[in-house]
């Protein structure tokens, strides 16, 4: 053996020891790092030392992610022993070399906190900047408003009252409404607001009328209360300034608080309320309110006696009984009807009382009036405390005759102003200023206005600089006129800005006791006159009915017609072109007759180009029923007897039909699209569609998942017979419940939203009691029987109940969707809806009752949902009592519901045919004769229906008569 070989020679025992040492060092290095990511362990953070139940060491986050990525059940990465998340254990060992990351973890947490704090500070900084910008803009607007207000008041204070051209200046213009049906307004000094009535066209109060207010301090509109179901004809403010009264065509007199803008009470009147006025007499409380009715009666109400009217005055000597206007004077009430004026006079004062009939009151001496709080009255119907009744008033007829429009008076005086329309003897509008004497009424002065008054407008009387002035609309200048009522001298003519030919001043009122501020209510559109139209082969005839045919202007174009008269105007795009050179018109006393020559010999299906219903345009059926007219081109004379006209429907040429059909298709498509957009923009429609679609999708998914469960073949008898086997299909209840429990719970919770929708009248076609019972029954079965108790949800009837619920919801929500979109009930769905309940209602009731009865022992034993009431009651309320009550109530409700649905089915579809009748046989008899006919009408016909020309004509004439009747 050489020396080199001796140097490298190692004994065998020593070699084994060194090999073991090397392997031990290698294993120690492996134990110091994670076998998954080969990173060193740490004593804190996400890479702490942890082990599985087999004993191998890993980083906590690494082994957690390893198990989660393999669906929660996987073997150990080293020994492949089955492990899960709950087998992970965090270890604390000193012998293992770990990296100290506590300081790093702490610094990372501090860094994250600083980032969050910085983000919070930046968010607060942005919010502060936005608020500063908003406040800056608001400050700028307020400065501008203050500057404008100072300028307005300065200009008003520097006005020269003697110079009529600078008496009143424009201070503010505001568009309070886009409606053209505003009739009346009034001013409340206590709140410095103007009140007016406006119709509501959107929202849940569509079709009603709202009382709104305009604040003169902020120059802004305030929201109103939609309490009137018809047009509002009158408004009146209590002299003490606490309440506002409004009357209208809904036969009610509404009382509002001007301080809260809320309705506090309403009185029911025998007929329509046309006018109203608070009592403003001497020694009489202003809690009395008079209401003038359409039937010619004046009724008296008391705000302190809210359960009945106080007194009724019947004016029976007038053939035109409508009480047009009411006005209070010092010793009585002026009653204005359409053709005369009457006076309800207070009794004469006693000898020791002094009566000042011809002197004005001192405005500084105001009597103390009692204020009634209607909001704090008792809810019972008992009569209030004894109240001194008003003195008996005597009815007198005054010698003021004419076509009365309105009455107004000065507060605490006997002066009044009566407005009369023009008549045949007096062809001008009259404004009669007079006073009430102890015996009668006398005329002081009369101011004559324009010749025509196209609409019933109101005038006002006010006092300014010791002068009594009148204010009314001036139709000749499209503005207003102010005159001295005592001398009938014009003081000033006021023109609103942007005056056009369709501007009308409807009402006016004073805004201060000194009479230096006034408000004017004007409209921007003329009313449309009632127009009758008819036609024959060659001509179209229009009869425009007006009060007085004056200043008539008619512009006949090839495809359009423009009409203007005193107070009336309209424009029409004609259905087909006309020949304007051979067309003309004739002016009569109270109508204008227009004759249009057709360009093509054809029958017009309507007068206007667009398919729209105009309330002022009606069909003249007399024109359609007369014989053929004279074809001469002589001008149409309205005073002569009209020639007979006969209607002939001539078939147009193919080219004309194609052109007209194309135009009509474009117009109809545009109208359909506009109607669809308007329909979709309704938030209630969007809410209903989303709710029904959501519930329908849930029901379909439950039905599909239930049907897709594997069906097991079971022998009912327990054994197979030699010849017959009774086999049925049953569902795996546990599988059905597991698949559908989340969707069933969600759908039953959404049913609560449907109940709230019915309560708030968002879904008017649903029955509240049935909806609440169905919701409560389903939620009781799911949340109190199936979810808590395993023995109940393992029952075989759970899958069947889910399937029946799903089928019922599918039929129900499909029908509701069709009714919401098409606004009418489909025949087949209606028949199905009125048929499936015969099977589904009792079956669902039996299955729900069975599950609740099966859950009763478990509920009673576990005392689930029990309520313990401690001292002083010491009562235990058990939930099983509620289940028993529910079962009894459900049985009663099932009988009542099936009876109600039976009558609905009978009224909708018809009764079942009797035995022995021809309708009783075959499929028709199986479904029932009327049922078969109802179902047949709902299905599309496979055979085209042939309609003759005469039948089409009769159908159009019948449709026109129906429209005229409506």
TrEMBL record:
EC numbers for this chain: 2.3.2.27, 4.2.1.134
Superkingdom assignment: Eukaryota
GO CC annotation: endoplasmic reticulum membrane; PML body
Keywords: Coiled coil, Cytoplasm, DNA damage, DNA repair, Endoplasmic reticulum, Fatty acid biosynthesis, Fatty acid metabolism, Lipid biosynthesis, Lipid metabolism, Lyase, Membrane, Metal-binding, Nucleus, Repeat, Transferase, Transmembrane, Transmembrane helix, Ubl conjugation pathway, WD repeat, Zinc, Zinc-finger
Domain CS: 526-608
Any Pfam family the entry gives: WD40_RFWD3
Catalytic activity from the UniProt record: S-ubiquitinyl-[E2 ubiquitin-conjugating enzyme]-L-cysteine + [acceptor protein]-L-lysine = [E2 ubiquitin-conjugating enzyme]-L-cysteine + N(6)-ubiquitinyl-[acceptor protein]-L-lysine
Domain RING-type: 34-80
Pathway: Protein modification; protein ubiquitination; Lipid metabolism; fatty acid biosynthesis
Record-stated family: Belongs to the very long-chain fatty acids dehydratase HACD family.
Entries under PANTHER family matching the protein: E3 UBIQUITIN-PROTEIN LIGASE RFWD3 (PTHR16047:SF7), RFWD3 PROTEIN (PTHR16047)
Full protein name: Protein-tyrosine phosphatase-like A domain-containing protein 1
Organism: Cichlidogyrus casuarinus
Organism phylogeny: Eukaryota, Metazoa, Spiralia, Lophotrochozoa, Platyhelminthes
